[in-house]
Design brief:
The structure holds two protein chains of two kinds. Chain A is built from 16 helices and two strands. By secondary structure, chain A is mainly alpha-helical. In chain A, helix 3 crosses helix 12. Chain B has a domain of 135 residues: Rossmann fold (3-Layer(aba) Sandwich). Chain B has a six-stranded mixed β-sheet with strand order 6-7-8-3-9-10, sandwiched between helices. In chain B, helix 3 packs across helix 5 and helix 3 runs parallel beside helix 6. The chains are: A mainly alpha, B alpha/beta. The interface between A and B is large, with 36 and 48 residues. The complex binds adenosine-5'-diphosphate and magnesium ion. The site of adenosine-5'-diphosphate (ADP) has 14 residues of chain B, from strand 2, helix 1 and helix 12. The site of magnesium ion has 3 residues of chain B, from helix 1. Chain B: This is ABC transporter ATP-binding protein.
């Protein structure tokens, strides 16, 4: 079972392993046939594993996991848009900002339950994604990149615009009251773990939905419009509509990511959405493997972990200040270059390659 | 051309690109269950005819009728739903999709499940996918390329890719299929197979063929339409057209295309790889 959707194995072409007989075979065949069952099972496994992991690590690590999880939301949407749909977006951070500010405003004004707040953030960014999508459906390559870049640069600056500074808090942003863990979990339940739970649960839901989508018709229409727009149209694909749908989906995911960011960091401020965030998201998606949902996870994990190692005071103490402060970007850039040189299809491509090698060794030994 | 009812009618179609008249009052019928060839020297307007039918280019004057209904303001993505499929000059396959997925894209017209059933992976989405896959495999089997279903187009020989492209057009079960230079780049043996294939198609679907290989045109077409400088200068059976003095003059007067003229006047037994001008229909349509 894989989440890489650009080139799924033809299901009937798979060699029949001994497992395919008996009960295991029945279960395997059923999973192959029923996407819902397969993806839900994977989601449940992920939830259990994450619940175990978050319980086993320190609150500091839990917070890191929460960061990773909301980055995963945004990156997964972006990999569908850019990797499968071929639409470049250098402004994905802007959608995260919209999600974060929506979350902050709704929480501060109406104090809705968190799920409803995040849903509102998703809805608002989906609308923004629709508007951008309609405009972008006519743009290509460098024009699209330029337009989205302008969005990333311009949108966070809007908070300083006089009429809305009161509402949006200007450069200081809006503080978000933390959502404490429910009392049912016990009074000593760490807030960080609760935040990790919220973030991870959302990430799993996003992955589940996107995996479903990319295993459907849309998972073919997207690469088709990316590869040859004219041939796609002649095959009956409404190219503009597909692009707009993808833009909405990707924006909604980023909006959820931004909403979670506001909840986890208890702040929605322009400083959290610099242009580098948008560029880092693109880099994470390329690093993980364009178009691969699993790759979006690997990319996000590296994106969050690398600055953490790099800002380790022991490691950077002897470096000049301006080198040390740029170390995260330097290391991340180096990782990106090395990985994409070795594996043009990113980390997920690398894992698959290793998997194939191991499998070949094993069959050589047994056969 | 009177006995079977016309599937597609072009009436006085005129297309201008700036000062250039690409099509000048062209009228002809595409009858049901026949193979209609569109020939003419380079720049005669053949590709423009296809682009008008597909909705890439709007005629400045004249009109189109599809099964008796006026065809106006249609867009390329409406074609398969109308029952018209087109193969592109060159290939137009999707390199990032496997062969079977390429053909499944062509079957889009038969898809039923919508966005929400896809988002929540409802069983109907799975059933839909399975049905599309079956359709695609059936077509690949018919065209004798089922064994490459899991491969990517880039890994396959050109002739096989051409078959996949044809499968992608036919899987939509069109009533009319527009073939743009299907023989370009094929070997003599492959052209013979293609001729047999096109003749076999005629039972189920009507065909319009733009082609430079005159022997293929003469062999498979029931009717031939000849264009020159945007004007329709002759139509009729392959034999009538071959002997038409206007047609001979048009081809002989055209220096670029004189090899085709030789074939035409001699009834051509040799096959040439006539390189097509420009970047193929794809890029022409893009420019349009
Ligand atoms: N999109 C376009 N813009 C401008 N001129 C065009 C366009 N498409 C075709 N033409 C011109 O129209 C004429 C007919 O072209 P075309 O239909 O491609 O000829 P054929 O396919 O018969 O070789 C040519 O002179 C060509 O240069
Ligand atoms: Mg042409």
């Amino acid at each position: 079972m894989n989440l890489q959707t650009t080139n799924p194995q033809p299901k009937n072409a798979r060699a029949h392993a001994p497992l395919d007989r008996g009960w295991a075979g029945v279960v395997l065949r059923m999973l192959r046939r029923h996407t819902l069952l397969r993806h839900t099972l994977l989601a449940v496994v992920a939830v259990v594993a994450l619940a175990y992991l978050t319980g086993a690590v320190s609150p500091y690590r839990d917070l890191q996991i929460a960061h990773m999880a909301y980055i995963v939301c945004a990156a997964a949407g972006l990999t569908v848009l850019t990797g499968l749909g071929g639409q470049i977006s250098l402004g994905h951070g802007a959608f995260m900002a919209i999600g974060a500010y929506t979350t902050a405003l709704v929480l501060n004004h109406w104090a809705w339950p968190l799920a409803a707040v995040l849903l509102a953030a998703v809805t608002v960014t989906a609308v923004a994604g629709f508007i951008v999508g309609v405009a972008a459906a006519r743009l290509h390559g460098p024009y699209l990149a330029g337009a989205t870049l302008a969005l990333a640069v311009g949108l966070p600056g809007l908070v300083s615009y006089e009429p809305v500074t009161g509402l949006l808090g200007g450069q200081n942003g809006l503080s978000v009251s933390p959502s404490p863990p429910p009392l049912a979990l016990g009074e000593t339940f760490p807030l960080e773990r609760w935040q990790a739970w919220i973030s991870c649960l959302c990430a799993v839901i996003v992955m589940w939905l996107l995996a479903n989508l990319t295993h459907s018709r849309l998972g073919r229409s997207l690469p088709a419009t990316r590869d040859d727009e004219i041939a796609a149209a002649l095959s009956g694909i409404r190219v503009a509509r597909v692009r707009i749908i993808t833009s909405v989906v990707a924006a909604a995911c980023a909006g959820l990511g931004g909403g979670l960011l506001a909840v986890v960091t208890t702040l929605a401020a322009p400083g959290a959405f610099p242009l580098t965030l948008s560029l880092q998201l693109v880099a994470a998606v390329v690093l993980g493997g364009l178009g691969s949902l699993a790759g979006a996870v690997w990319g996000s994990v590296v994106l969050v972990l690398v600055p953490n190692w790099a800002s380790d005071p022991d490691a950077s103490a002897h470096l000049p200040h301006n080198v040390a402060s740029n170390l995260p970007a330097l290391i991340f850039g180096t990782v990106l270059i090395v990985v994409t040189l070795l594996f043009p299809r990113g980390m997920q491509g690398g894992f698959r390659w290793v998997g194939r090698q191991v499998k070949r060794r094993l069959t050589e030994r047994t056969g | 051309m009177t006995s079977p009812p016309a599937l597609l009618e072009l009436r006085d179609v005129t297309v201008r690109f700036g000062g250039l008249v690409a099509l000048d009052g062209v009228s002809f019928d595409v009858p049901q269950g026949r193979v209609t060839g569109v020939i003419g020297p380079n720049g005669a307007g053949k590709t423009t005819v296809f682009n008008v039918i597909c909705g890439f280019v709007r005629p400045d004057e004249g009109r189109l009728r599809w099964r008796g209904e006026p065809l106006t303001r249609h867009r390329p993505h409406d074609l398969t739903r109308l029952g018209i499929a087109r193969t592109l000059q060159g290939l137009g396959l999707f390199p990032g999709l496997t062969v079977v997925q390429n053909v499944m894209v062509g079957a889009e017209r038969h898809a039923r499940a919508g966005f929400l059933s896809a988002l929540f992976a409802l069983p109907r989405s799975d059933r839909d996918e399975a049905a599309l896959r079956d359709r695609a495999m059936r077509l690949l089997t018919e065209l004798g390329v089922a064994e490459v279903a899991g491969r990517f187009p880039g890994e396959l020989p050109y002739g096989v890719q051409k078959r996949v492209a044809l499968a992608r057009a036919l899987v939509a079960e069109p009533d009319l299929v527009l073939l743009d230079e299907p023989a370009a780049g094929l070997s003599a043996g492959e052209i013979d197979e293609l001729a047999a294939l096109i003749r076999g198609l005629r039972d189920e679907v009507s065909v319009v063929l733009v082609e430079h290989h005159m022997d293929l045109v003469m062999e498979v077409c029931d009717d031939v339409v000849v264009l020159d400088f945007g004007r329709l200068i002759a139509r009729g059976s392959p034999d009538d057209v071959r002997d038409d003095p206007l047609v001979v003059a048009a081809y002989l007067g055209d220096e670029v295309d004189d090899s085709a003229a030789d074939e035409l006047t001699e009834g051509g037994t040799e096959t040439h790889d006539q390189p097509s001008h420009g970047g193929g229909v794809g890029s022409e349509a893009r420019r349009a």
